Amino acid sequence: MWPTLTAYKIVKLPVVERFEFIGIANWCLIILPSICLSIWCAGRLLKRTIKLNLKYSVPILCTLILFGCIVIKTRLEIDILNSIINDLGFFLGYIYIPILFVLLWLVTKIRSK
Fold first, then answer.
1. What residues have CB less than 8 Å from 6, skipping those under 6 apart?
2. Residue 11 has pLDDT above 80, yes or no
3. Which of 67, 27, 66, 60 is closest to 42 using CA atoms?
4. How far is Cα 36 from Cα 28, in angstroms, rounded to an integer?
């Protein structure tokens, strides 16, 4: 189910009995900058759209993410969330943005005449 974790279980060291703990901590250090950048971008988006200061939006976002991590418990729930995000990304990338482009093109053509 988790191939990286299974690969960490293969490693045997005489000093460390459970090497997967070190591997999980290492992955947290690898993933942390991406999470921080995503939270900062979402905070900037909230600042531009609803005029919420970054000082307040980032803690709110972190609290929502923590609550979301607590709520999702099983692999099935992770798969459901993953499929929802995939569908949303497809809709956003291949349907919503091209429609916006066409509408903006039409508006600029109408205004120029």
1. none
2. no
3. 60
4. 12
